[in-house]
Amino acid sequence: MSVSQATLSPNPTTSRSAVPSLSLYLAGVGSVGTALLYQLSEFQGDAKRPRLIGACTSTHAAWTPPHPTPGAVKHHLEHGSTLHWPAVLERLIEHAPRPLVFVDATGHPDVADHYTTLLDAGIHVVTPSKLANTRSQQHFDRLHAIAAEHNVQYRYETTVGAGLPVVRTVRDLRATGDGIHTIRGAVSGTLTFVFSRMRQGDSFGEAVQTAIKAGYTEPDVRDDLSGEDVARKFLILARTAGASIERDEIEVESLVPESLRDLPHLAFRRYVHKANDAWRERAETAASQDAVLQYVGRWTPGSGIRVGVEVVPADSDFGRLQGQDNLFEVTTNRYAESPLTIRGPGAGPEVTAAGVLADVLATEA
């Protein structure tokens, strides 16, 4: 028997002070959102366990009883009302208990548009989506200014390294007065995989096809091969480190041959092998120098951001990087002779959801 929407709604008359635990609203129950629901259901933090009050998909919204199971949340959404953002925002702003965290796991620009409204209403915002942070510098600054003005937090750790503490590290270095000289990283699991397969003997086309079959790429693999994802991650890191920079100032090397850029994506997959000879020559040239190819991003204050293929020593950390791992090196005043290094899985629903949950819990710190 389905439960009525009214029964699921939080009581608007409940005193906010009577609900001491952290409340959470989840937008998006795809792979990351679903993983987050399971992690919430297993969370053993007792009184500190976040209380899910509602969720929405791109089409439906529902308000939930305290600590529902992931299956119950999806059931409520299937029988919920049609999503109407003005109504959701009104309920969150006017009636939801505080402290309240809004988690955007949708990756949809329309949802990112609501961040300023939510922050202005005293609601924390946590997101794994890069959209809001890669708009104009003015928009990035405004989000942080509104959050500071209303003493709430805007957290986006998982936009760069999934569960890896990269954004937090950069933020902490800056807050403690360290001067950042360079941030360098291999931050695309897809591209790391492609180049590691090429080192094992695959042609460029074979490596790309293997990544597609393994489910490591976007539906159109050119979204990975273009380097745009790496550019966005470094834009976020540079801005977090205090730089003022726009997307069109970034130098990006695309791995998509110009002759194949306008093909339908299925046709691109059939013809990607046409780039094999060019990549074999580059790899052989690197090998003659005891080096290999790796797709790397780099930000240096005063010099800006460049993302593209680098020739790196075969015995270096970047040269030995395998699978879908990410690697970040941060050189600062304090870490001048030996960079601060962060390495590990940089993608995947579970590690991303864990990073989101850590951001949610950190809003109470």
From TrEMBL:
Protein residues bound to NADP(+): G28, V29, G30, S31, V32, G33
Cofactor(s) needed: a metal cation
Superkingdom classification of source: Bacteria
EC primary class: oxidoreductase
Keyword Coiled coil included in the entry's annotation: no
Active-site residue numbers: K233
Domain Aspartate/homoserine dehydrogenase NAD-binding residues, every copy: 28-157
UniProt keyword list: Amino-acid biosynthesis, Kinase, Methionine biosynthesis, NADP, Oxidoreductase, Threonine biosynthesis, Transferase
Residues annotated as binding NADPH: T106, K130
GO biological-process terms attached to the record: homoserine biosynthetic process; lysine biosynthetic process via diaminopimelate; methionine biosynthetic process; threonine biosynthetic process
Gene3D superfamilies: Dihydrodipicolinate Reductase, domain 2, NAD(P)-binding Rossmann-like Domain
Catalytic activity: L-homoserine + NADP(+) = L-aspartate 4-semialdehyde + NADPH + H(+); L-homoserine + NAD(+) = L-aspartate 4-semialdehyde + NADH + H(+)
Pathway, per record: Amino-acid biosynthesis; L-methionine biosynthesis via de novo pathway; L-homoserine from L-aspartate: step 3/3; Amino-acid biosynthesis; L-threonine biosynthesis; L-threonine from L-aspartate: step 3/5
Span of domain Homoserine dehydrogenase catalytic: 165-361
Binding locations of L-homoserine: E218
Keyword NADP: yes
InterPro entries: Asp/hSer_DH_NAD-bd (IPR005106), Bifunc_Aspkin/hSer_DH (IPR011147), HDH_cat (IPR001342), HDH_short (IPR022697), NAD(P)-bd_dom_sf (IPR036291)
EC number: 1.1.1.3
Single GO term (MF): homoserine dehydrogenase activity
Pfam short name (any one): NAD_binding_3
Family membership noted in the UniProt record: Belongs to the homoserine dehydrogenase family.
PANTHER family in UniProt: HOMOSERINE DEHYDROGENASE (PTHR43070:SF3), PTHR43070
Name this protein carries in UniProt: Homoserine dehydrogenase
Species classification: Bacteria, Pseudomonadati, Rhodothermota, Rhodothermia, Rhodothermales
